[in-house]
Amino acid sequence: MLITRTNALVPGMRKRTIGRQVHFGPVFLKFITVIILAAAAIFYLASTTLGATSNYKLQQSQEEKAKLEAENQRLQIEAVRLKSLNEIKNSTQNMNLEPFRK
Fold first, then answer.
1. What's the rounded Cα separation, in Å, for the pair 85 and 71?
2. CB of 67 within 8 A of CB of 59?
3. What angle do CA 68, 70, 76 make, to 5 degrees?
4. What pTM value is reported for the model?
5. DSSP string of 47-93, one letter each residue
6. Distance between CA atoms of residues 15 and 76, nearest Å
7. Coiled coil located at which positions (predicted)?
8. Is 44 in a helix, a strand, or coil?
9. Reduced DSSP (H G I as helix, E B as strand, rest coil) percent helix, strand, coil of the chain, to 5
10. Per-residue pLDDT tens for 87-101?
């Protein structure tokens, strides 16, 4: 036997036995609010942490780039110096100069 809330009978339609109304109490609404706020806080913290991490990696890369550029410049200067010393040595040998004697 089927007990329903309504007396209306529509041919071809099945009567509902359970109502679809759901009531939320104040405790449940507070709980859902706290859950939503906690999820928003976790999302905010995750995004700021991700931003800080990428900023730190960018800063480290820029420092490494500056160090490598300074090292490159130093090595270029050293290469020019050694090249000029080698050219001076070769030019003195080509001139057939004699050593200085007192």
1. 21
2. no
3. 100
4. 0.51
5. HHHHHHHHHHHHHHHHHHHHHHHHHHHHHHHHHHHHHHHHHHHHHHH
6. 91
7. 58-85
8. helix
9. 70, 0, 30
10. 877 777 777 767 777
